[in-house]
Design brief:
This protein is α+β, with helices and mostly antiparallel strands. The chain has six helices and four strands.
Length: about 160
């Protein structure tokens, strides 16, 4: 025998204590601050692009031209540039509709990849921090730490 349980889709409303509300407000504030940090355009990227031999079949007409370009971006946007180091992208001529882009013939696509992305600080504050860290030996220390870690990981 089965018993049916009716789900009335009614959420029980809870009232927060002042202390709980204060904690929730602090959490919201922290999330807003993190979101703001993720969206700040504090970085300039130097992106090196080259044609993708694999999907372009070695045909220069089917590959993007090699070039270097710069992009001002946020932390949130950086993964998009790194993605195209891992996988090819393709381009098309300007002025196409979404439908035309979706149905774009494979033979006409121009394929490319990013072979390097250099991330540098753009804001004055970050630039000063970067230069100060360099002057104080921060990067040198971390290179030594990294070198030691690599030595420990190598099998003898």
């Amino acid at each position: 025998m089965t018993t049916k349980v009716k789900n009335k889709n009614k959420k029980k409303k809870y009232e927060l204590t002042k202390e709980q509300q204060k904690e929730m407000d602090e959490i919201d504030k922290q999330c807003d601050e993190i979101d703001e940090q993720l969206k700040k355009k504090d970085y300039v990227l130097t992106v090196y692009q080259t044609g993708c031999n694999m999907l372009g079949s070695g045909d220069p007409e089917r590959m993007v031209a090699p070039r270097r370009f710069y992009a001002v971006c946020s932390l949130e946007e950086i993964p998009e540039y790194i993605k195209y180091m891992k996988q090819p992208f393709w381009t098309h001529e300007e002025g196409l509709t979404k439908k035309e882009i979706k149905n774009y013939p494979f033979e006409k696509k121009r394929w490319g990849r990013y072979w390097n992305v250099i991330i540098e600080p753009l804001s004055e504050e970050m630039e000063k921090n970067y230069l100060s860290a360099s002057k104080e030996g921060f990067f040198e220390s971390w290179r030594m730490i990294q070198e030691e870690d690599e030595k420990e990981q190598k099998p003898e």
